[in-house]
Amino acid sequence: MRRMLRNMARIDLESQLRPLRRARTARKPSEGWLRAMRQATGIPVREIAEIMRFSPKMVFQTERAEQRKTITLDRMEEMARAMQCDLVYGLVPWQRSLEDRAMELVERELWRKRYAR
C-alpha cells in the first residue's frame, strides 16, 4: 500500500514537473526578473516602494540583490506581489525522470542488501 501511494505521488509530481522542464529553457533577463517585470509593466518604483513600505532606493537594492543571487524568496515574493505577479518556484531534475531515479535507488538498495553479507 505504501509503495502504491509513493508511486502515485511520484507520477503526480512528474506531471507537475512538465511545465517546469519547459520553463528551464527560458533565459533569465540579464537585469533580473524583478527589474524586467517592473520595466515591462511600467509600474513606477515609487508605487512599488509604497506597497512594500520601502524607500525607492530599497526597491533598486532589492533588484540588485536578485542579480547578485542574495535575495530571499520571501523578499522576491513580496516584490512580485507589489507588482501584482506570482513568484513561481520549482526544482527540476537535470536529466532523468523521477521514475528513472527511483529505480536507480531501488537497484542500489537491492545490490547493497544482496552483497552486504
Give me the secondary-structure topology.
Elements: H1 2-23, H2 33-41, H3 45-52, H4 56-67, H5 73-82, H6 98-115
Helix pairs in contact: 3-4
What report would you give on this structure?
The structure is a single chain. This protein is an all-alpha fold. The protein folds into two domains: 1-24 and 92-117, no CATH class; 29-90, lambda repressor-like DNA-binding domains (434 Repressor (Amino-terminal Domain), Orthogonal Bundle). It has six helices and no strands. Helix 3 packs across helix 4.
What do we call the CATH homologous superfamily of the largest domain? Answer: lambda repressor-like DNA-binding domains
Strand content: under 5%
Q: What structural class do the secondary elements suggest?
A: mainly alpha
Arithmetic mean of pLDDT:
85
- The name of the CATH topology of the largest domain is 434 Repressor (Amino-terminal Domain)
Helix content: 55-70%
CATH top level of the largest domain is Mainly Alpha
In the CATH classification, which architecture of the largest domain applies? Orthogonal Bundle
**Span from first to last CA?**
29 Å
> Could you spell the SSE succession in H and E letters?
HHHHHH
Q: Main sheet, how many strands, which sense, barrel? A: none
